Amino acid sequence: MDKNIKSETISRRQALKLAAGGTLGILSGCAINPVTGQQQLMLVSEQQEIQMDRQNSPHQFSADYGEVQDSRVSNYITKVGVSLSSSSHRPNMPYSFRCVNANYVNAYAFPGGSIACTRGILVTLENEAELAALLGHEIGHVNARHTASRMSSAIAVQGIVAVGVGVAATQDSRLVPLAAGLGGIGAGMLLASYSRSDERQADSLGMEYMDNAGYDPEGMVGLMEELEKLHKSKPSFVQQMFASHPMSSERYATAVKKRDTVYANSHGKLLRERYMDNIASIRKIKPAIEEMQKGEGAMRKKSYNEAEEHFSKALRIAPNDYAGLLLMSKCQLAQGKAKEGLHYAQQAKNRYPQEAQALHLTGMLSLENRQFKQALSNFDAYEKRLPGNPMTTFYKGVSYEALGNREMAANEYYRFIKVNNQGDYAKHAYDRLVGWGYLQ
After folding, report:
1. Domain regions of the chain by residue span
2. What is the tens place of the pLDDT at every residue in 299-337?
3. Which parts of the chain are TPR repeats (predicted)?
């Protein structure tokens, strides 16, 4: 495995040793849960949680089109998040908070404390207390070590800790290369669905942290109401959230009961006006976000003409929107319009030069347009900005091969098969290395 993307969590040999060790190995892997104070199976250390987070979260945030570019929104989300995490059970974790440009309705947390909410969910919330409920819930997952606990159970039962390459959601074979280039490394496992028990505990912790920070517990009730309404009226918009955060009427009822009993004497605040003021730039383009949501739904159904219409409407409302430009670029690629797709990808790159996804998409579309030097330049820039994606090495190999530089192409193909030796891409790389005499 290449040293630049090798996981520093637990080696396969260590995992198998733990699995083979039976009861003795499991008992030696127990730890005190910071929330319950009780012992639990824990084969992933806090430092390993942080390391996995640092390796994987940047890829997911980029797949979600990066952090919003309005510093007022970013600072506001961070301020609310810190007010909650500072009085949590693990206040010393390296928390970070952001709103990403994704249009779907969701929020998620990596095990080391990197937390994101999408702009798609921000435009559905009504006040700061609901935002606090959302972030408090995610902080609850970090504090209860839900991801580390799930991974520890998998290690103990199967001896497996290998983390696969996650890819951007798509159901179209023509977008598979694109998706493979944009996914998070291991994000799929780290952000897998929580159990209903985990969700109940995170809800309870979220309400506790809200109360500690001076928010009205009605915020949690309101959050549940908003999500349930969306689930009934626009189920596709909350599909990813409900997949990773199972919802139920029981969770809503529990929030209501706790509001009326445990927190009956709470005098916290809702802060609607402050919330609306601070997310004004996102609320301003809500119609564009809704058009993008519809367009992404059409893309999933392979209705590309319909998707293009929605993305066109979105860009008329918000012509410089980074996510909108990239979505239109992907839509053009899906229709075989590589030249038009490249145009939109380059616009997106100019609009948000610090964000990596546009670099990768520009590289992909440059390949489609046989602009191999431009493709290589963009893949190099992407790899410097966001290292650790094995697909980038594969496409660099393709670029070098097209330019006639066999030695550099072989180097990139070899790097690729060291971390990914299955599937069509690995076969292409392997066949080239054998054909060129680099492998027997």
Report:
1. 45-142+160-280
2. 999 999 999 999 999 999 999 999 999 999 999 999 999
3. 288-321
